[in-house]
Amino acid sequence: MEGNMKVAVMNGIGKMGFTERPVPVPKDDEVLVKLEYVGVCGSDLHYYEHGRIGDYIVEPPFVLGHEAGGVVVEVGKDVTHLQVGDKVALEPGRTCGQCEFCKKGLYNLCPDVVFFATPPVDGVFQEYVAHEAGLCFKLPDNMSTMEGALIEPLAVGMHAAIQGDAHLGQIAVVMGAGCIGLVSLLALKARGVTTIYVVDVMQKRLDKAMELGATGVINGREKDTVEEILKLTDGRGADLFIETAGTDITSQQSIRAACKAATIVFVGYSASGDITIPMGAALDKELTFKTIFRYRHIYPLAINAVSSGKINIKGIVTEEFPLDDIQNAMDSCVQNKADIVKAVIKIQK
Question: Taking CA 179 as the corner, what is the angle to CA 19 and CA 86, rounded to the nearest 5 degrees?
């Protein structure tokens, strides 16, 4: 496909703009995807607000966005499992396939991964992208490309639930009711956990958690979180915590409100990159700590969960913006975090 496409670029901290670039030409093992929806991730907002996450520093002009869904419009000559017109969800990280981690199947830990919107690699707030066909997952007819874009954050929540061995009979607590907290809630429910409490300090996010099926919620600004969890569990504590807030306070609360032999899955990144925890309490309870980095081998499972009706992923979306309104979209997401839990950018029809 010849011609140019519109691309939204970050021109500096808090500054978005537009440029035109040539529509990419897919390689033999790639497909060209006409993007329809791209989710706004917390990492996008962090880059937009601060210009960096740890050692990853934005050098403008830079393209944000990595949660993508769209339609195949061109197919490389070596691609056999996709054809023009297929709706797809794009897994955003290309790995080397040759390192020890890739060969073990732990490809999310590949040191040479090339990941959308992770500097210096541009993201996909744009009209088209050429992407490795093996990382483009066909969506069933009953799924939309918006749902396809939301498979990426859902994969994080499902990886966390799997790492925590979530199962029927557990009492689980999700710390944080942002996007990743909510997809963790949905993943826990899909794996059979029937008692799930969600903790946050923003009431509208807690209301959304209840809407999505939480057993109950705790507003940590109004109540003592540890006391409430112990009260709800008759003093025993919870079996499984998914910690998505990435703060000292919520991490410490998870340990203190856990029952003996419980598991805590750490998902959230702190602003500094470090968390201080009460290790003595953890040792006394013989807790299991798990951590996750993105996800691996999850997309087919996540797509099936949405397609089968086990997970209502569209339910996490609270705002939709057109690509032309990208400046307002990013500003709104930064300034109105209490109300906008999850926003998506509609790229084109």
Answer: 60
